[in-house]
Write a structure and sequence with these properties.
Number of domains: 1
Strand order of the largest sheet: 2-3-1-4-5
Helix content: 40-55%
Shape: globular
Number of strands: 5
Strand content: 5-15%
Bound molecules: cytidine-5'-diphosphate
Largest sheet: 5 strands, parallel
Length: 214
Amino acid sequence: MTNLIVAVDGPAAAGKGELTRRLARHFNLARLDTGLLYRAVGWAVLQANGDPADEGVALAKAKALTAADLENPDLRSEAAGSAASKVAAIPAVRTQLIDFQRDFAKNPPGGAAGAVLDGRDIGTVICPDANAKLFITATAEIRAERRLKELQAKGVEAIGSAVLRDMMERDARDAQRSVAPLEPAKDAFVLDTSDLDADAVFAAAVDFISRKVT
Ligand code: CDP
């Protein structure tokens, strides 16, 4: 069996994380949350008191990125998410991160049967030849509600209206940037999860991938 590559793209808090963790277990795939790469670059810029929209500092941090940087729990913060979407709009930063992602997909670690990558441009730019491409989405209100619950579960105090506003700002930045904007690949299975629970999303995704690879 050849290396199975599954691309999962979509906006913030659409349920890609939970879905890709389950897909990784089910199909024995290595999983890469590519958002962490941009979060780590954005966070490193903030730590250096830099402006995440400044190409010089963002590119330097992207070049200096190591695997250990991806383990930092602070990367999950909303500040890191917002900085991530700013550094992610810089073409040179995206180019710098391409090889790491493609190499992970082609040579998945740990003897896995393939790789599942979670991001915004996996099906369109990083792995255009992926065996299966999914685009996971939901209304902004529902995504904001899910993110709010995630934050509250972690004990982070957050206000629903502010989470929704930040998410819509980030979505707009991701969709409007000139390079690798957030959009479904032409051959992606678009799944609106607004009215689906995690089990139903997983079942639909497994069904789609299984039909693609047999
Ligand atoms: O977890 P959440 O869905 O909120 O965000 P994430 O996947 O961690 O991504 C954070 C930010 O990184 C996004 O808003 C994008 O701007 C950027 N990103 C990207 O441009 N390309 C990717 N493949 C992954 C993330």
